[in-house]
Amino acid sequence: MPIILKTERRNPGTRLLFGVMYVLLAIGACSMVYPFLLMLSGSTKSRVDANDFDICPRYVRDVSALYRKHTEAKYSEDLQLYLMTTGDPARSFKTVAPPETFRGELVRDWIAFRDGEDMPSSWYMIGYGPTLEGKIIQENERAFRNFIRERCGDDLSRFKAEFREPIENWFFLKFARERLADRKYQLSDTPLTKAFYEFKETAPAADRITVSCNGTYAKYAELKGVKQPEPLQSVGSSDIWDGYVRSSLHPQFVRVSEDGRAQWTAFLEGKYTNVGNLNKLYAREFESFESVPFPADRVHASAELTDYLLFIADPKHVRAEHLRVDTPEIRWSRFLQDKYESLDDLRRAHGRTYASFDSAPMPQREADYHHCVVNSGMLKRRFLWRNFQMVFEYILLYGRGIWNTLVYCAMAIALALLVNPLAAYALSRYDLPNRFKILLFLIATMAFPGVVTMIPNFLLLRDLGLLNTFAALLLPGMANGYAIFLLKGFFDSLPRELYEAADIDGANEWHKFWIITMSLSKPILAVIALGAFNGAYANFMYAFILCQDRSMWTLMVWLYQLQQFSSQGVVFASLIVAAIPTLLVFVLCQNVIIRGIVVPTEK
Q: Which of 51, 77, 527, 589 has its C-alpha lying 20 to 30 A from 118's C-alpha?
């Protein structure tokens, strides 16, 4: 009988009571759903927006926020690289703002220059690469991994033999961060480096980060007490220029005119005395010092490059008038001069007030913003998915976590549906001596948390030699006192007449248990199966302690390991991924489960 009769529901006080109850239930529901929505939103974020507590990520609805996120990702969370490349005075990626208004011709000129200029691949870096802390896998980092996997036929042993790199799994393959503006940075002549530069030429042009020598030049001049120096010229114009070229500019951008070749020859003669000594070190066969050219490769580490650095660093070896500079900015300036007849034409086309052709900076910031606006849909999908993609790649490519979890959960459910019903059936069907004491003993196990028995279980299983086996995971929990108590109560509610009829028909005990009891107990068995699944699926501590061999780790242990070196967004994404199986099981089986909990049925 209902607590409130139908006739009483028309009363204004009763309606008010119902309204208050619904409001309280709605508030309670929101208080439970809101934290989950915050976590769901946080699973799509990175460092630049991790502290934004909004249910819908801001970059989904705000192009400025999307531009900040795009900038952070493209420059691999390296603020110094972004500042040197773009000249933006931002203090952090959170303060990055869209560039000032510009005309479309500016970006079109840059795209034409970028795609048409034959620049060496060492003049630009690849964006969306490994981050400083390595807590997120980015697109080009993943693309490089797939490039090498395809080249090796997805054979890790072949990769180790060909590239001589000790990686544990494909998941951990990444390319090294480049510092192409750093004078001391030199590439090693390894197979993996060569493969990376092959991959680098295939990467999308929009993902390139062209080295800005003007950025490093301005920083060098500031350290020398000169603020806002003139743009870096191809020919020396000041002592600041000379000092920067000799001590800070990367050698790949430094040239020596033909007039300085005699000084190069004299430098080599003074150092080696005999050309045979030079050939021995260079592994070459030059006939004389005059035939030794300037090194063509000024990026890879070599004896020639070391000598070249020593040569250009000292004014005693080469005079300033013989030094030349060739940088991306200088080529950009020449491109503009060739296209536009006058500086005024350039200003009108770009909508900027340039002081000269040389002062027109490379518009990488504007190009990034243009790319962000044009490809906003693609970028939003990328940022919404990338943390989850990292989680799925980790659990699929690394270890046997999914297989171990499937086997463990299936066997745990099977044992729970076999052992517990048998024990409950015996307590329900037979008048056993002290059965209530037995039942009390089973219920008493609920008073002790699982951590109390963790050490005794570990010692027992160790002495039995069962560590790192499925038996170690299954044996301690296959019989559950609460499940037996729940099943006994349900079995007691089944009509005794069915068993008496079965006795008349000559059915044995197994038939009565399997055909009658188990067939009529599907709702409560679904509850037991769900409990066994949850217990096995969420079992982290036991699985981590009893199975320390990585080949036996379950999904929860692998996700815990992932969380140790991942960003906050990836951690949230891993928690959501871990909750999906439990949610699916409840959604698909909710009718059976609810009947087992609330409305035990009789057939």
A: 77
pLDDT tens per residue, range 165-187: 888 888 888 888 888 988 999 99
306: Cβ–Cβ under 8 A, 6 or more apart, which residues?
A: none
Q: Can you tell me the distance from the alpha carbon of 459 to that of 464, in angstroms, rounded to the nearest whole number?
A: 9
For 399-597, CATH number out of 3.30.390.50, 1.10.3720.10, 2.40.50.140, 3.50.50.60 equals: 1.10.3720.10
In degrees to the nearest 10, what's the CA dihedral of 242, 295, 119, 174? -100
pLDDT at 5: 62
Enclosing H/E stretch for 243:
helix 239-247
Distance of alpha carbon 331 from alpha carbon 183, whole angstroms:
20
Would you say the C-alpha torsion 336, 339, 342, 343 has a positive or negative sign?
Answer: negative
Q: How far apart are CA 440 and CA 254, in angstroms?
A: 87
pLDDT tens track for 361-393: 999 999 999 999 999 999 999 999 999 999 999
Instruction: Name residue, tokens 């490089």.
Output: 144
DSSP H or E run through 305: helix 303-313
- Domain parsing of the chain, residue ranges: 6-42, 399-597
When computed from its CA atoms, the radius of gyration of the chain, rounded to whole angstroms, is 36
Q: Is the pLDDT of residue 600 over 80?
A: no
At 220, the amino acid letter reads Y
Residue 7: which pLDDT band, with cuts at 50, 70 and 90?
low
CA distance 364 to 210: 8
Gap between the Cα atoms of 205 and 200, Å rounded: 10
Which pLDDT does position 299 carry in this prediction?
A: 92
Across residues 398-407, what is the average pLDDT? 89
pTM value? 0.84
Exposure string over 10-24, b if 16+ CB within 10 A, otherwise e: eeeeeeeeeeeeeee
